[in-house]
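Notes from hallway chat w/ T.B., transcribed later so I don't forget. T.B. wanted the structure written out for a chain they're using in a teaching module, and asked if we could keep both sequence and structure tokens in one place. Agreed to drop them here.
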Amino acid sequence: MKSRRGRPVEWVGGNMMMPAAADEPELYETFFWLNAEGDLLGTATYVASEMADRLADSYVATVESPEIGEPHIPERIRVASEEHAAALRRTVGPETEVVCAPTPEVEPVRISLAAYLEKVGSEPEETYLSPGIDAEVVASLFRAMARLHAAEPWKQLPADQTTASVSIKQLGVRRAALVVVGHDGKLPGLMLFPDEASASEMRALMAAEQTGAEDETPIPSHLALELVRGAELETSRRKEIAKHGWAVAGPTAYPELSVFDEDGMLRPPSVRELAVIEAIATALVDLVEKNPELLPVLAKQEPFEHVVEVPTARGVVSVELSPAIAGEDDAHEPEDVARAAAEDLLEQFHASPEHAKVKEPHDWASLMLEHAHAFFGVRVDELTPVIVEDIVFFSFPSKVSCPPEVAGSLVTELRAFFAFLERERLCPEAAACGRLFDDDAEDTLRDRLADPRSYSMTKAMIMAGFEAGYDLSTEEGLAAWLGQASDMLEGGNGEPRQLRAVPSPSARSRPPSPKKKAERKKAKTARAGRKKKR
């Protein structure tokens, strides 16, 4: 991991206290990193009293996986707090200078983040419902949880090991690690990790917490379902359950689903994730009721295989349970191989009659394939309606920085893409995927792209700039925004003004530019030349 060539690479670090309710036991603080161009490289939120001790985690995580560009080590770090500077000096290597000096660059980010938090913090009540998740989807989950509570699989399954490996092709789940918790009277529920390595990391974290030992490992991404006491729920959600008549098995059987993203941050679940938990719960109930002899096999981690079809809010799916063996996680197709295959496919699409009918193409199909590989590890022939729905209607609103007005071009292009796949017989479920973009798909997607509740923190800061009318993808737009921010910070007329401006978007979160397309074409030509020589 090397520093970038040319001018010295400087990072600027800044922090901001998060708003808290009066009865909040802890105060939280967010630390963010910017590069010299004002781009957001990374963020992390910690308990405020632990911030100085946790800066090392934030620094290392950003070095290894910055939001923009390749992994690199800065040659200089500038922070405004001597305490933060001292903590970072204990962490960085000799190649990085840490200075304590003014950091005016962070003020626009604070303003933007504060505006975003004020905007989304006005949500009056907690609810199980959200865009794409209606009352029937939640009802289906509650019915499955009521059956799970009655079956009590945790009584026969130890919680200190992975219960099974789970695959659900229709929902984009491949050899995920399932942990059933609730043994020895602990709070019952399920935890689902992307792989066995993530589950092992979580066990190590929990063990360290029980012993009081310090463990700086970030929380791995996972779904967590707990059955809690109704008294622990917000009044608004208890009223919502009563209003809709959702099934609850008892006073200690209220389902609480938490989703931790790749950064260890909580976010709302998607309809696909609700269906995943529902399918696994139903499969476990089937196991208890019809194949109880397999429970001791799971507990002892002996070889077995159990496949069952179960109903979910997203249709009938096939759940495969098998032993969880460390070191045998199902690896994704190598990125360079996946990228080359996608480029070949997209070249065919661009030359197709379906693409010729798209008036304003923006390479949305390319971005969808990138998300399919990165977050689901699937090829184009493995796409299902549920996976595509999750990418376009949940992942795009959360991660892709674009105005709501692109919904029309996005829907039109993807409809054409799946029509092409269907005609060429390149995806068995192309027709079903294409139907996602009929009827009111454009209106639905536009609403979700405009809903700040679905934004990740990085996207929220980017979108604030777009809302203010700045083109933050250009140096000119960024300079204009920073100038406006400076004017506001100098006082103005004393009245509060909303400045929704943020660093320029990550190239990974936007459709490829013409320059990027040209680079891809050049790389493809070079690969073809190498093949000829062989």
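Follow-up for T.B.: Residues 135-322 form one domain. Might be a good example for the class.
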